[in-house]
Amino acid sequence: MQNFPHHYTVTAIGSHGAEAELVSDGLPPLGTATPPEFDGPGGRWSPETLLVAAVGDCLALTFRGVARKSGLTWTSFECDVTGTLDRVEGTTRFVAFEVRARLQVPSGTDQERARAVLEKAERNCLIANSLNAPVHLIPVIEAEPAVPHRIDVCPAAI
C-alpha cells in the first residue's frame, strides 16, 4: 500500500442534455444521469446509486482483504445495500444505509469467526467510515452444503 494521503481525481462533464460523464485517468468513461426520483430519465448510474454502490463495493473489497489476512476460507460473498435518502431540517441527504451481507463458507467453518471477520470488514470500510449516515450491517452466514458421497455402480456389475 502506498503512504497516505491518497488522492483520487474524477472529472464530471455536464452538458445541456440529461446526462453527464465521469472520467478519470486509466478508467473508461461512465455516463450518469439524474435518477427517476428526481424526474431524470433513469437507465444510468446516478450520484445516488454510485454512492450506495460505493458502500457495497468497499465492503466487498475490504472483506476480501480482512478474510485473507485472518486466514478465513470463504466460498462466496454478496451484499445488497439500500440507501435511504430523506429531507431532514430542509436538507436532502442520506439518512441510513442498510447492508444485507451474505457470506457462504465451507461446511464445518466456525460461523461465529466468519461473522467476526465480516463485522471487522464493516468497521474498516473506508467509504462507510466517511459517511455521516449510519451504516447497519445485517450479516447472514451460510455453510456451503456438504456434498453427499455417491457410489457409482457399474451397470455391468449388476
List the main descriptive attributes of the protein structure presented here:
GMP Synthetase, Chain A, domain 3; three-stranded antiparallel sheet; alpha+beta; three-stranded mixed sheet; 158 residues; 3 helices
Describe this structure in words.
Helices cover 26% and strands 32% of the residues. The chain is elongated, with a radius of gyration of 21 Å. A 3-stranded antiparallel β-sheet has the order 1-2-3, with no helix packed on it. It contains 3 helices and 6 strands; from the N terminus they run E-E-E-H-E-E-H-H-E. The N and C termini lie far apart (62 Å).
The strand line-up of the biggest sheet is 1-2-3
Shape: elongated
CATH structural class of the largest domain: Alpha Beta
By helix and strand content, what is the structural category? alpha+beta
